[in-house]
Amino acid sequence: MEPSKEEVKARTDRFAQALRDSGTRLTHQRVVIFQEVAKTGEHPDADTVFRRVRKRMPSISLDTVYRTLWMLNDMGLISTLGPQRGRVRFDGNASPHHHFVCTDCGFVGDFYYEEFDGLEVPAEVDRMGDVATTHVQFRGLCSRCWPRDGKGRMSQGNEGRKPHE
């Protein structure tokens, strides 16, 4: 689900304030990289962010994108999902939410379900350490990779389909 313009603005405002509060320089490169992640519900990987940012900033390096994404992750402004097919994906939505991940094409979708936000921590997990957040991830085939015939069964003829992002 794509965030609204108001949500992207709120995310960008939180980002700018967090950088100011931490004494980190608010550079144009950091703003553009953050906005690329914050404006989409696609959960792009670093290479995708790099390709998109490079269209506006041809001189930006892949290293700068990676370092910025990891800095934003460390600051709690974005989160990672994965590893996904060998690539970590970044999520610009820092509000409590959960994910559906397609195990075929790699599609990631956000969903909100308050009951999951307040899950009781099992004693076994509690013994492992102090839980700060709960994240539920459903994995399976997305609606594009598993077309249904109206009866909940996978349709024939799915061979050769192309993955989507």
**Per the principal axes of the C-alpha atoms, what is the gross shape?**
globular
- Rounded radius of gyration (Å): 18 Å
Provide the residue-averaged pLDDT.
Answer: 84
* Secondary-structure content class: alpha+beta
Query: Which sequence of SSEs, written as H and E, runs from N to C?
Result: HHHHEEEEHHE
Summed up, the helix count is 6
Biggest sheet strand line-up: 4-3-5
The beta-strand count equals 5
Ordered list of secondary-structure elements with their pairings:
Layout: H1 5-22, H2 28-38, H3 46-56, H4 62-74, E1 79-84, E2 87-91, E3 98-102, E4 108-111, H5 114-117, H6 123-128, E5 137-140
Parallel strand pairs: 3-5
Antiparallel strand pairs: 1-2, 3-4
Describe the structure.
- The protein is built from six helices and five strands, in the order ααααββββααβ.
- The chain has 165 residues and is an alpha+beta fold.
- It folds into two domains: 1-93, Orthogonal Bundle (Arc Repressor Mutant, subunit A), CATH 1.10.10.10; 96-165, Dna Ligase, domain 1, CATH 3.30.1490.
- A three-stranded mixed sheet has the order 4-3-5, with no helix packed on it.
- α1 (5-22) packs across α2 (28-38) and α2 packs across α3 (46-56).
- The radius of gyration is 18 Å and the shape is globular.
